[in-house]
Amino acid sequence: MRIHWHRTDLRPSDNLPLVTGEDDPILPVYVFDSRVLAHAAPPRVAFVRDSLTTLREWYRARESDLLVVRGEATEEIPRLADEYDADTVSWAEAYSGLGRRRDDRVTARLADASVETRTVHDHLHHEPGSITTNDGDPYSVYSYFWKKWRDREKASSVAAPGAARLADPGVETPIPTLDDLGFDDPEATIPSGGYEEARHRLNDFCSGPIYGYKEARDRPAADATSGLSPHLTHGTVGVRTVHDRVVRAREAAPDETAREAVETFRGELAWREFYHHVLHFNPRVVTENYREYENDIAWRDDPAALQTWKDGETGYPIVDAGMRQLRAEAYVHNRVRMIVASFLTKDLLIDWREGYDWFRQKLADHNPANDNGGWQWAASTGTDAQPYFRIFNPMTQGERHDPDAEYIREYVPELRGVDADLIHDWHDLSPTQRRRTAPEYPAPIVDHSERREQALTMFERARGEADD
Ligand SMILES: Cc1cc2nc3c(=O)[nH]c(=O)nc-3n(C[C@H](O)[C@H](O)[C@H](O)COP(=O)(O)OP(=O)(O)OC[C@H]3O[C@@H](n4cnc5c(N)ncnc54)[C@H](O)[C@@H]3O)c2cc1C
């Protein structure tokens, strides 16, 4: 018997470690690992529970079942291997430092009990170390990584295991509630989980919206992106399935513009892999700057401003809309993530780690590779990051990407009756004009031009180029 340990691969098909080898029957297991839960938050746990429910139904329809347990994986996996007399345990490789340390401990415990482990690279098309510079080093510049990633052949998706290969654990294990696991209900409405939902999203997106992706992906009001991020994070869809479908969309593209849009989308899938490679080779980035400056960056300790940012009360409409979308939907549009991250680090001069921590608590799609990559990009501390002197102006960003203020009005009800021009000029209105226009909406908490200068000085000091 082989135990398959599901982690961030909550799907039956296109799951390489699940189908690998011939050592049947396969007993599927999920562990609510207390060490992992210590870093988790309600939106992600809710998404995982939802996804486990559909995965369990899939197994039950095949006279098998998903065994769901709680505890420390280092204890539970060896215990189950012993209880079910398994000779092998399989799982998909993890890329974070936390995940790899846990897997090393489980492997050692299993080896002591003479149980084999089979680990397979499954979450990425090209595993860390397989796309490198000519000297064999990992890339720190995305555009070079992309050229190799783009041209490298990709494996196709694999079918789910047949019912005959699956074992029945002989007991029914309930999926613990959020309360059982020590979490409150999420504040947000969480996107639906599960492999079927992922498949629908992928098909819907690739049947039309993908052809407008290049042009519309930066417009948060347009609903023009795939919405696949929680599914890719939790593995309710396999990367090969996504890519196969995207390639079919490219083959069916009506013209060159549509083909280019598909290629732009593939570029985002490559960013995901790039950041996973960065994390794999630099596990320290979850708490430290990737990029070293000569001096420490003198971030401000400003709890009141941080709270205002979290609450979406900064008086910068596009920033507040994004922060309120996060609270309402456990999701934020990519362009707006960039804007709110830039605002926290370059206007409020607050350390990116505060923002990363808030996103970790609030996003359903949080994963350390992409989240950290995004934050360190915006803070100019990451690999291939935004240069420190290129500072987003939140007013012009709002005007450019949400010209009719549709997105802003959706999440900031105080501005619903207000003309887009006034919304985008909010920073320049007089106090009287603001009171007359939208009395409930706050005045800007900082002056962007002043803060921009202070941010430049902060970075120049860190670079050793300005006096204290
Ligand atoms: C500060 C910040 C924090 C972020 N945190 C996360 C996070 O925790 N989890 C996460 O999945 N993404 C994160 N991103 C990247 C990006 O914002 C989301 O992946 C995207 O908004 C998800 O929406 P979508 O699935 O509709 O994306 P689409 O535009 O449809 O893209 C398809 C997929 O490509 C990947 N992708 C897209 N953009 C990026 C990117 N810039 N970097 C890496 N991968 C990308 C995602 O897996 C995404 O699902 C972050 C970006 C920033 C700037």
Descriptive key words:
468 residues, mainly alpha, Serine Threonine Protein Phosphatase 5, Tetratricopeptide repeat, DNA Cyclobutane Dipyrimidine Photolyase, subunit A, domain 3, 3 domains, 5-stranded parallel sheet, globular
Write down the CATH class of the largest domain: Mainly Alpha
Low-confidence stretches: none
- Strand count: 5
Radius of gyration: 24 Å
- How many distinct helices? 21
Strand order of the largest sheet: 3-2-1-4-5
- What is the name of the CATH architecture of the largest domain? Orthogonal Bundle
The CATH topology of the largest domain is given as DNA Cyclobutane Dipyrimidine Photolyase, subunit A, domain 3
Bound molecules: flavin-adenine dinucleotide
CATH level 4 superfamily of the largest domain: DNA Cyclobutane Dipyrimidine Photolyase, subunit A, domain 3
Structural class: mainly alpha
SSE order: EHEHHEHEHEHHHHHHHHHHHHHHHH
Q: Average pLDDT value?
A: 97
Give your account of this protein's structure.
Residues 1-125 form the Photolyase/cryptochrome alpha/beta domain. The chain has 21 helices and five strands. The protein starts with a strand and ends in a 6-residue tail after the last helix. The chain has a five-stranded parallel β-sheet with strand order 3-2-1-4-5. It has three domains: 2-122, 3-Layer(aba) Sandwich (Rossmann fold), CATH 3.40.50.620; 195-281, Alpha Horseshoe (Serine Threonine Protein Phosphatase 5, Tetratricopeptide repeat); 303-462, DNA Cyclobutane Dipyrimidine Photolyase, subunit A, domain 3, CATH 1.10.579.10. The model has no long low-confidence stretch (mean pLDDT 97). Helix 13 (317-329) packs across helix 14 (334-347). By secondary structure, it is mainly alpha-helical. Bound molecules: flavin-adenine dinucleotide. Flavin-adenine dinucleotide binds next to helix 9, helix 11, helix 14 and helix 16.
